[in-house]
Design brief:
Largest sheet: 12 strands, mixed
Order of helices and strands: HEHEHEHEHEEHEEEHEEE
GO molecular function, one term: phosphopantetheine binding
Number of helices: 7
Helix content: 10-25%
CATH architecture of the largest domain: 3-Layer(aba) Sandwich
CATH topology of the largest domain: Rossmann fold
Oligomer: single chain
Radius of gyration: 18 Å
Number of strands: 12
Shape: globular
Strand content: 25-35%
Protein name: Non-ribosomal peptide synthetase
CATH class of the largest domain: Alpha Beta
Structural class: alpha/beta
Keywords: Phosphopantetheine, Phosphoprotein
Length: about 240
């Protein structure tokens, strides 16, 4: 995926403050460097003058080792994929074992309500955030600070769009769907990538003309189903191909 310098600049200057990463601190990366999910902490640590810790591959699969590392190195910020965090919370310390000192960020896949509820119960005043979006939109494009109230009785919210980004829930005719109705998520704005390197066919299929922007503007067709809530938050509702 060919992301742009402008898209990354928009991300690093606007997103860290939305997910509690805007102050210097110690950041721990537990994702493989072949994915872009961990880049949230890589760039946040760079732009805030923080300290970056990249945990060894043998450590990140061991709940006890991860918990010990977070404590001994006084880690402030951690981002994890929900399924990975769920496996780590099965350790002897439970959800508390994956909580850093200041903020925990979830991203990379849908967050189960039960996992989030357990993390929130253990977190107290510490921030727990959801950060949603595909690689084709420069790491992620929606954020939500999670709370027991935001969970309600439904799905975990993925939040609101980041700066200079527009999110559309559209039907098959590219018309906006009503609040509460599931539609396919399209992303437009500063963080949309140029396309797939060497794949003009796939680029043309997924990066399409945006009928709600300036002439020549494109939007990315994610394949995700989402719905808007009454208070302007997005909720993940599955995949188009499911």
């Amino acid at each position: 995926v060919a992301v742009t310098h402008g898209g990354l600049a928009n991300y690093v200057t606007t997103v860290p403050g939305r997910i509690g990463l805007d102050r210097p601190g110690r950041h721990a990366v537990v994702q493989a460097q072949t994915t872009d999910s961990g880049n949230t902490l890589v760039f946040a640590s760079l732009v805030t003058g923080g300290e970056l810790h990249i945990l060894h591959e043998d450590t990140v699969t061991d709940a006890v080792a991860v918990s010990r590392y977070l404590t001994e190195h006084r880690i402030d910020y951690l981002k994890g994929v929900p399924s990975h965090l769920a496996a780590l919370t099965a350790g002897p310390e439970g959800p508390a074992g994956v909580l850093p000192g200041k903020a925990l960020v979830l991203g990379g896949e849908e967050a189960p309500r039960e996992l989030v509820a357990g993390l929130l119960a253990a977190a107290g005043e510490q921030g727990v955030f959801n950060h949603f979006g595909p690689t084709e939109t420069t790491i992620a494009v929606a954020t939500a600070r999670l709370s027991a109230e935001s969970l309600g009785s439904g799905a975990v919210p993925v939040g609101r769009p980041v700066a200079n980004t527009r999110l559309y829930a559209l039907d098959a005719r590219l018309k906006p769907v009503p609040v509460g109705v599931a539609g396919e998520l399209y992303v437009a704005g500063a963080q949309v990538a140029r396309g797939y390197v060497g794949r003009p066919d796939l680029t043309g299929e997924r990066f399409v003309a945006c009928p709600y922007g300036d002439s020549g503007e494109r939007m990315y067709r994610t394949g995700d189903l989402v719905r808007w809530t009454g208070d302007g938050r997005l909720v993940f509702a599955g995949r188009v191909d499911e």
